[in-house]
Amino acid sequence: MSRDSFLAEYNQKIKPKLKQFENLRKVYSSIAVIAFILGYGLFIACFALSDYMERYLGKYYFLGMGCIFIFYLICGSLGSYFKIKLEQRMKNSLMQSFCDCIGRNIRWAQSSQLFMNDTALIERSRLMPPGSRIDLDDTFTGVTKNGNLYKISEVIGYGRNSNKIFIFLRFKGKNYANTVLMPKGEWQLSYNLRKTTLEDVKFNLFYDVYTDDEVEARFLLNPSLMEKLNGLKERYRAGNIGVSFFNDNLVIRLSVAGDAFELGDSVIDDAQFFRLYEEITAVLDLIEYIEN
What we know:
Blueprint: H1 3-13, H2 15-48, H3 50-57, H4 61-102, E1 107-109, H5 118-125, E2 135-143, E3 149-156, E4 163-170, E5 176-183, E6 194-196, H6 201-204, E7 207-211, H7 214-220, H8 223-235, E8 240-247, E9 249-256, H9 271-291
Antiparallel strand pairs: 1-2, 2-3, 3-4, 4-9, 5-7, 5-8, 6-7, 8-9
Helix pairs in contact: 1-4, 2-4, 8-9
């Protein structure tokens, strides 16, 4: 679907629903602010009146102060809790409508609804260290016009810049050799694959390639595809990219900072949906290029 067609669908199906969520966001924000002020005020008052509290509570003084401190922490965390709750309600209500605006039979799901073989594909792709913890979040999935399955899944990491976007493409009638492209020096294990080089000397400065079929590896990772992958990396503002071919699968890993498919603090900000549209269509454009 073209951007103009998407905008027309978006304005009809999604934009009218945003106002009610913006009103809900304001309610949540007001409650969070009031709770924080109440908790902070109570916490300060207890310190100011600590002598009186110690006199009346006696040996229970520290227990009382501990309870007040916990209450203060709860009040302070309400803002984050409400933000997560609001985002979840928005996604449950709007995300499938958003997919319908893009077209191409895209479906959205979260971790509890994901396909069971996602984690197995990640492990077999060799794009994550063995034994890595894999927690899946938002996933977009669909079938191309040629009948090939694709999925775009977010993998929640632990630590700075540790979140990943995994793109799974399964092509009917393909049987790729094992070929893995990784950022320079990031290869996890050898897996008995041979190191090779790409045609483009520039990309050899940034990537290592391991394969059990050097001819096919150079054919697959040709300069044109590498340029497409670099464009995908820029679209997702990714720190680095990894690619794995095996059997009938192509798996792409993008390392990103923060929540890749987060809906922002301002509910009525159209830019967050337009950015998501561009990220999804960038993957679809790559799939179309590979299929052709």
